[in-house]
Design goal:
The complex is a heterodimer of chains A (about 500) and B (about 100). Chain A is built from 15 helices and 11 strands. Chain A is of the alpha/beta class. The longest helix of chain B is centred in the N-terminal third of the chain and has 15 residues. Classes of the chains: A alpha/beta (about 500), B mainly alpha (about 100).
């Protein structure tokens, strides 16, 4: 039965509908697999009883020939999504014991579609990190290792638990969120597929906020088709989120298998900075070649403000985070460290409850928003953001989709990067997409000489996720899929 | 622009995070590394550029100004460190 966990969503869906397998046995297989994969530290809370109950309900529906698009499919949920009565702590100490009395729109959409919840997944604290090393619940380990090495590698971040769990087959797929690359970078590090949809496509209601103008939820899955199935179920028009856009959700799966003949694919020259590894360059060229062989037209383009996206991000994101995280004061939920008076209680609670990286970002954000500095930092960064968006607006007159590397390197070792700015550079290829609000997908494209997955990124026009699925699928067909060998 | 320990102390106060004096130099150093990284934005000509306020062109949704939710104070206070009679409890703030 253990090979049930090797099924993709689409494969499991077919077997469930034909009643070749039951949702209950599929769920039991995953619960057993999670038990055996504790070393990865991907889950921070497991909900096996809830999973079994949900699976039984799914079987009852399937037996009657009913059920939603994800009926009986076991999923992992990033700890950033509010799940009613279940551990929801953004992997922070400051949310100790928090169990929301409500369900996020995304997870409610998934349960309405029939999905089964296996538990909550590890992540960088408040989604701030690129290696999953800032979690209060400890680091997550990547299922992938270098050739002939037993050394642990990071799964990327902030959705490190999601990526590790999908790659290790301890959930069929996972929810994730992306503020600067937190879906696409871990997907690239683990040989999985991750899509950050257009800002406004997926409701942010009930998702713990980091930087509200950049945050967007999306799935991490084993292949492109599964990503299309998951996004269709997660996305909705939601009155509870005023930034949710009033556009019907397309059937993304229909884009899978469409030819890219005549599609114009942009290659931005600014994404080839000095010192970019030859392996990354090579996999990028190979991706372009694959698309060309299938009839796409490769067009060199320029996105001149690319290099300013990361510095602008490190003003905008901390500024918004410092405002969003003001609510963690020890009064309404989570940790409280008693002080001499109210202010002292706030200060002691926040000093004890936030980890070092979160404190650093809240401090930077507070500084750039403080009197006298607001125009020099925040307003300037928002102006630069306009220029970044205009770069893309102009590119769309020449191309239909943009192809870039997903990350500047393959997965690295825990503790290998200690300098914050070096860590931030992991997002150099992904962050522009958040700054411009565009959709981006990371798709595995090959293995490095050390045997580690390398990913490519496709960037699309606003609300044109379909072209991303269509193009990513062509890359996937050429590159093949990559599965980590179990050692855990 | 770079920050000194006095500024870090002020920012920590604004952010309501207690910072020990011994940690100030290290924090100032880390903040200065990040601030010097973002300094490169000064190279960009931003005259006559509007700051971006929304990545998607859409009018803000409006709704009727009516109560659609609420009346469950127990659910609101259930996660508080201290509450009484459906109120959040905090240290005394009025003498």
């Amino acid at each position: 039965m253990s090979n049930l966990t090797s099924l993709t969503i689409a494969e499991a869906r077919a077997k469930l509908q034909k009643r070749e397998i039951s949702a209950f046995e599929l769920t039991e297989s995953y619960i057993a697999a999670i038990e055996k994969a504790k070393l990865l530290n991907a889950y921070v809370a497991e909900t096996p009883d809830q999973a079994r109950a949900m699976a039984k309900a799914s079987d009852a529906k399937l037996a009657k020939g009913e059920g939603g698009s994800l009926e009986g499919i076991p999923l992992g949920i990033k700890d950033l999504f509010a799940t009613k009565g279940v551990h929801t702590q953004a992997c922070s100490h400051i949310l100790d014991g928090f169990k929301p009395g409500y369900e996020s729109t995304v997870t409610q959409n998934l349960w309405n579609a029939g999905a089964v919840m296996l538990g909550k997944l590890n992540m960088d604290e408040f989604a701030m990190g690129s290696s999953n090393e800032t979690s209060y619940y400890g680091a997550v380990t990547n299922p992938w290792r270098r050739k002939n090495s037993n050394a642990a590698l990071v799964p990327g971040g902030s959705s490190g638990g999601s990526a590790s769990a999908v790659a290790a087959h301890i959930c069929a797929a996972a929810t994730a969120t992306d503020t600067g690359g937190s879906i696409r970078q871990p997907a690239a590090f683990t040989g999985t597929v991750g899509i950050k949809p257009t800002y406004g496509r997926v409701s942010r209601w009930g998702v713990v906020a980091f930087a509200s103008s950049l945050d967007q939820a999306g799935p991490i899955t084993r292949d492109v088709r599964d990503a299309a199935i998951m996004l269709k179920a997660m996305a909705s028009v939601d009155d509870k989120d005023t930034t949710s856009v009033d556009l019907p959700v397309p059937d993304y799966e229909k884009a899978i298998g469409k030819s890219v003949k005549g599609l114009r694919v942009g290659i931005p020259k600014e994404y080839r900075p000095d010192g970019l590894s030859s392996e990354i360059n090579a996999v990028w060229d190979k991706g372009a070649q694959w698309l060309k062989e299938q009839g796409a037209e490769i067009v060199e383009i320029s996105l001149p403000h690319t290099k300013y996206a990361l510095p602008a991000y490190y003003i905008v994101a901390p500024a918004e985070a410092s405002s969003n995280l003001a609510r963690y004061d020890g009064v309404r939920f989570g940790l409280r460290v008693p002080g001499d008076d109210l202010i002292d209680t706030y200060e002691k609670t926040r000093a004890a409850g936030f980890g070092k990286e979160v404190q650093r970002r809240v401090m930077i954000g507070t500084y750039v928003l403080s009197a006298g500095y607001y125009d020099a930092y925040y307003v300037r960064a928002q102006k630069v953001r306009t220029l970044i968006k205009q770069d893309f607006d102009m590119a769309w007159s020449k191309v239909d989709v943009v192809l870039t590397p997903a990350t500047p390197s393959a997965a690295f070792a825990p503790g290998e990067i200690t300098d914050p700015v070096q860590m931030y550079l992991n997002d150099i290829f992904t962050v522009t997409v958040n700054m411009a609000g565009l959709p981006g997908i990371a798709v595995p494209a090959g293995l490095s000489s050390e045997g580690l997955p390398l990913g490519l990124q496709l960037i699309g026009k606003p609300f044109d996720e379909e072209t991303l699925f269509q193009t990513a699928h062509v890359i996937e067909q050429a590159a093949g899929r990559f599965t980590a060998k179990s050692w855990w | 622009m770079s920050v000194d320990e006095k500024t870090v102390r002020r920012v920590a106060r604004l952010a309501r995070i207690q910072v020990a004096d011994a940690d100030l130099p290290k924090l100032a150093g880390e903040m200065n590394v990040i601030l010097s990284f973002v300094e490169q934005l000064n190279e960009v000509k931003v005259d006559n550029v509007e700051p971006l306020t929304s990545v998607v062109e859409q009018n803000m949704k409006k709704r009727q100004d009516v109560v659609t939710d609420g009346h469950y104070p127990k659910a609101i206070t259930q996660n508080a460190a201290a509450s009484e009679d459906d109120f959040f409890m905090v240290p005394k703030v009025v003498e």
